[in-house]
Amino acid sequence: KATVKIFTINGTSGSLTVNERDNVTVIFTCNARGRPAPSVTLHKASGELLNEIGNTPSDQYDKTVSYTILRVTSEDMRRYICTADNSFTTPNDDNFQLNVRIAPRAMNSTTTKENPEVLKKNGTQLHSCGFP
């Protein structure tokens, strides 16, 4: 049987939240065990495979892979999956959610003559709000 033993991002398991503007680097690490040693793959929940580094045998029954994202952006926010498969049993997987906080962005909008506090963007009225 092939089993994912450990799946982490920057040493944390479960989920991780980072700020996009902090230019964070994240490293996914997945270790799996099985007899025979399993193949280990990392992929996005959409199914897109990641080009992992390694597939390094820790011993004759273990394999470890890692994948690095050098500047996390909002496009990297998703669920990631590590799958262990040795073709003898049903593949085993573990997953991890990467959350990315995004800074507010300026909009290209204009004020109306009738009400300078109301903005129009693409036909939609946006009302300003905030602290005085």
Explained architecture:
With 132 residues, this protein is mainly β. It has one domain: Immunoglobulin-like (Sandwich). Helices cover 0% and strands 52% of the residues. The protein contains no helices and 11 strands. It has a 4-stranded antiparallel sheet with strand order 1-3-6-5, with no helix packed on it. The chain has a 4-stranded mixed sheet with strand order 2-8-7-4, with no helix packed on it. Strands 9-10-11 form a 3-stranded antiparallel sheet, with no helix packed on it. It starts with a strand and ends in a 5-residue tail after the last strand.
Q: Would you summarize the structure shown here?
A:
The protein is mainly beta and 132 residues long. Helices cover 0% and strands 52% of the residues.
CATH T-level topology: Immunoglobulin-like
| Annotation, overall tally of beta strands | 11
Count of individual helical segments: 0
Arithmetic mean of pLDDT: 82
Helicity range? under 10%
From the alpha carbons, calculate the radius of gyration and give it in angstroms.
22 Å
How large is the share of residues in beta strands?
over 45%
Contiguous runs where pLDDT drops below 50 for at least 5 residues? none
Under CATH, the homologous superfamily reads Immunoglobulins
Shape: elongated
Domains, number:
1
Strand line-up of the largest beta sheet = 1-3-6-5
CATH architecture grouping: Sandwich
Cα-to-Cα separation, first versus last residue: 63 Å
CATH class: Mainly Beta
Helical/strand content category: mainly beta
User: Secondary-structure element sequence?
Assistant: EEEEEEEEEEE
Characterize the main sheet: 4 strands, antiparallel
